[in-house]
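Sat 14:20. Reprocessing the chain from the morning session after the first attempt stalled halfway. Input below, unchanged.
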Amino acid sequence: MTLFMDNSMRKYVLLASIVLTGCATSPQDCDLHAQDPSFITKLSCATSGGYRQQVDQKEQQVRLSQYQNESAKQQQAYTQNRQQNVNQQVADEQARLNAVRSDLSQTLSQLKSSKIKSSERQREITQLQALQRQSQHASSASEIAEIEKKVAQARQRIKVLEEANTLR
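Finished this time. Tokens:
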């Protein structure tokens, strides 16, 4: 009987040590890709939920990565949209600048070929030539608007000069 109790006692001690080893296993010890975990470690991880915790943690990391990826895609789309808008504004300003330069050249040509012969005509020509040089350096919408305004004013003054010349 004592032999039987000795064997039983050994089994209980072995079982208790397995159970206690299982309790001592942390989720970090339950790596699914570990090189060669022992049978006791595997059993401990399976019974303690360590494997499940590892899987849950990896799934959470995947969800976080997916969220970050989606956020980055949205940020990229927003940035591309803003870039397209800026490019369109630049193209629009360039078109306005080209139009005002063309208008300025036509006005200057018209003034040079007119029959008006006076110091005012020469002053207008000089001012329009200075405005042409200024238009070569214009880069902002406000500078373009200022040049447009000055060209319109010059056209008005030229019109007055032509009418005055016709009355003579």
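The helical segments are 2-23, 39-48, 50-113, 119-137, 141-167.
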